[in-house]
Write a structure and sequence with these properties.
InterPro entries: ABC_SsuA_sub-bd, NrtA/CpmA_ABC-bd_dom, Solute-binding_3/MltF_N
Shape: globular
Radius of gyration: 19 Å
GO cellular component, one term: periplasmic space
Organism: Mesobacillus foraminis
Keywords: Cell inner membrane, Cell membrane, Lipoprotein, Membrane, Palmitate, Signal, Transport
GO molecular function: ATPase-coupled transmembrane transporter activity
CATH architecture of the largest domain: 3-Layer(aba) Sandwich
CATH superfamily of the largest domain: Periplasmic binding protein-like II
CATH class of the largest domain: Alpha Beta
Strand order of the largest sheet: 2-1-3-10-4-11
Order of helices and strands: HEHHEHEHEEEHEHEHEEHHHHEH
Strand content: 15-25%
Structural class: alpha/beta
């Protein structure tokens, strides 16, 4: 499946999920022509890292535009930054984008970025060998209702298990994936629902066992793991700028698929600069096998994911995301 995605020139360059409020002018100085791109320090967001390293946004936007970058640990803060105008566009998980759109936020998915990359691991010594052992255990995800959380809780529901949030027995914690290894070692959590490369890091550092693979977890092979988003206002009022951002994004994805080893080097360097964590090449190699990169968006998968979010009570109303996705810039 992964090879098919890669050969289809699918790529990643978007990631996140968030919430927030504020004025359009709160986040940045409108007197200068500046574009701020947001992304997360994980492998689902490699398209942003490569575009940053190669100066692709700068090249497409031209010398008159200053490009800045801002990183986020989870989707809520990313979405807040988008809504307040602190960032103009960026990569985030589809979960935060959909959750915010459903509550009236001005957000549009304008391209895909990556697929896959969600792995569920059990702490060594936890007694967990399969899903049958999950009841009563403690699991962690980056955020409540985030992409990884919905994927995992959908899988749980299909197995007849639920979290305490909706009347079940599993305790749910949230936190920064870079800290999951330490939490597992300390026995604070039993199960980590981790995006790459943190799943591969956990395997190496803690001997945790993969109990649900990236291609087994719900929506693992079809759902965009990260997407490129922008405000609807910007797509309408400045479509030329959005098109240049997407052109750079597409170029980045094509580079990743054609030059995976160099893209891995860029990823290792960028994640170290952001998190101070030096990833081993073998960790990145393992994580890379669980990811596909594409700028296409599977609208049917987005709707199916959102229907599950509603069923799990992350969304108050059953949504229709037909208008959430704007494919005009990738066609």
């Amino acid at each position: 499946m992964k090879k098919a995605l890669l050969t289809a020139a699918m790529a990643l360059t978007f990631a996140g999920l968030l919430a927030g409020c504020g004025s359009e002018d709160a986040g940045k100085d409108k007197s200068e022509d500046k574009v701020v791109i947001g992304y997360f320090p994980n492998i689902n967001h490699v398209p942003a890292m490569v575009a940053k390293e190669k100066g692709l946004f700068e090249k497409e936007l031209g010398d008159g535009t200053k490009v800045e970058y801002k990183t986020f640990a989870e989707g809520g803060s990313f979405m807040t930054a988008l809504k307040t105008g602190e960032i103009d566009a960026g990569l985030v998980g589809p979960g935060p984008a959909m959750n915010n759109y459903s509550t009236g936020a001005d957000v549009q998915i304008i391209a895909g970025a990556s697929t896959g990359g969600t792995v569920v691991l059990a702490r060594k010594g936890s007694g967990i060998e399969s899903v049958e052992d999950f009841a009563g255990k403690t699991f962690i995800t980056p955020g409540v209702g985030c992409t990884h959380d919905v994927q995992y809780e959908t899988f749980l529901e299909e197995a007849g298990i639920t979290s305490e949030r909706i009347g079940g027995t599993m305790k749910h914690l949230t936190g920064n994936p870079a800290q999951y290894s330490a939490m597992l070692k300390a026995g604070k959590i039993d199960i980590a629902v981790a995006p790459e490369p943190w799943a591969a890091v956990i395997e190496k550092e803690t001997d945790a066992q993969v109990v649900i693979g990236w291609d087994e977890v719900s929506f693992g092979e079809t759902l965009p793991a990260s997407v490129m988003v922008a405000s609807g206002e910007m797509t309408k009022e400045n479509p030329e700028k959005i098109q240049k951002i997407i052109d750079a994004h597409k170029e980045s994805i094509e580079f990743i698929n054609e030059n995976p080893e160099e893209a891995k080097e860029i990823t290792i360097k960028d994640i170290k600069a952001t998190t101070k964590q030096d990833l081993d090449k073998e960790v990145v190699d393992l994580a890379w096998e669980r990811i596909g990169f594409t700028y296409e968006v599977d609208q049917d998968a987005i709707q199916a994911f959102s229907d599950s979010s509603y069923a799990l009570k992350f969304l108050k109303d059953k949504p229709d995301f037909t208008a959430l996705i704007d494919k005009n810039f990738i066609n």
